[in-house]
Amino acid sequence: MMEEFFRKHESYQTGNPKLDQLIHELIHQAGPGANADLAEELIVTALKAHTDKLDRGDMKMLNTAMKELRHSLKVFEPYRAIRKVSIFGSARTPRNSLDFQIAEKFAKGIVQKGWMVITGAASGIMQAGNEGAGHKKSFGLNIQLPFEQEANPVMLQDPKLVSFKYFFTRKLMFLRESHATVLCPGGFGTHDEGFETLTLIQTGKTDPRPIVCLDAPGSDYWTDFFIFLRQQLLKQGMIHEEDLDLMYVTHDPSVAVAYVTDFYKVYHSMRYIRDLLVLRIEKPLSEKQLDQLNQEFKHLLKKGKITQSLKPFDEERNAPYTFHLTRLAFYFKRDSFANLNKLIHRINSFSGV
What's residue 149's pLDDT? Predict the structure, then answer.
């Protein structure tokens, strides 16, 4: 029995058979679970960090990060089936600002479409987002700072408020739990979140999503930002022309709402299965539409064609909420994820056909 256990778990162990068996028994005592193997690996990681004799500060960082991630995942779990948008912007934006009012209107409009809102839970644009959405449709991911970042009145006593010590755990949850990003005028933090989102999409480290740059009518905040991107990054070959298409600029909150929701009009989600990229869509495409995709986006294919299936893959059995969706599968040439966004927009254009 012992030999069989170690054959199955030899990929990641402490190296001490007696200790590995104790870990296995500990998880068994904790109760059944589909992810017991991963729970064992988490314990192994903790013990490896202990035996590595890491600095106490390093151990505290690992411990705090794990606690923050576990708690935030628990908070979001009951709401996983609901789409959410992360709204970023300055904590210093006053209530009488047009940017505050536009952020509030956007949040109110997106909630009316069945979405929820995630903000940093502080003042300014973040408070505007939470006020527009209302506390029942809001999440707050607060960061512990010596200034500016006390939770706003909307989120202060809400159980969907999560407090973080580290920016990196907080940033992970902003991206992992949302399906769209809206950037309002802000400082370093806003641009940090925006550039991180762009980088992860550009490199394929996160799924495609709509990114909206929203500011008040007459404002040149995002106009000037795009001038910088074109004159410096694009002109010097640091980004591609299509990378700029990852962002959409508007002064109208209702247009921003439509742009975000339209991204998921037909497209639902994606995942990789071995070497195949699988796009889940809400309804089957006609043969003509599928042919159009293959002609227009053949430059994205490493080989073969885009094929359609009405059944899920065996590897998707852990996601029963997607079983009703149609699949588009192809061998994606992973060198231009911005063009993958264009493919999704083209699929969505078939919604009214």
Answer: 62
pLDDT at 282 over 90: yes
pLDDT-above-70 percentage for the chain: 95
Assigned CATH for 79-262: 3.40.50.450
Contact 13, 40 (CB under 8 A): no
pLDDT in tens, 302-322: 999 999 999 999 999 888 889
Q: pTM above 0.90?
A: yes
Full DSSP string of 76-145:
HGGGTTS-EEEEE--TT--TTSHHHHHHHHHHHHHHHTT-EEEE-SSSTHHHHHHHHH-GGGEEEEEE--
User: Which residue is listed with tokens 């959405």?
Assistant: 133
Structure tokens at 148: 């500016």
Residue 349 to residues 123, 161, 333, 345, Cα–Cα distance (Å): 38, 37, 23, 6
Cα–Cα distance between 251 and 89 in angstroms, integer?
15
Token couple for 185: 């005028």
pLDDT in tens, 66-80: 999 999 999 999 999
Q: Where are the domains of the chain?
A: 2-53, 79-262, 267-352
Round to whole Å and give the CA distance between 250 and 252: 6
H or E stretch at 271: strand 267-273
